[in-house]
Amino acid sequence: MKDGRLEIDNNRSERSIKPFVIGRKNWMFANTPRGARASAIIYSMIETAKENGLNPFPYLTYLFDKLPQLEDPKDHIALDKLLPWSQTLPLTCRVFNQKNT
Q: Could you tell me which of 5, 66, 85, 92 has the fewest CB atoms within 10 Å of its CB?
């Protein structure tokens, strides 16, 4: 490994999946392929939001408000503005730690 930007371990990814491993018996509602797919989508959205410095609840609320209002759901430019790494997201979606405040 010659790229110094890469982490040596996978602790970060293990921490991300820990809540789901601990609560695996709580996910019994995902007893169908559609339920499992829906769970995977929402978990991915939440973890991606966290990794991009967003507070998942306000971010998802923002998405659920904006997505139905899109004129063309396949408009890539409009969808890009809603992605978790978009700089156009409102500040209310962002998590501020002591360094940012």
A: 5
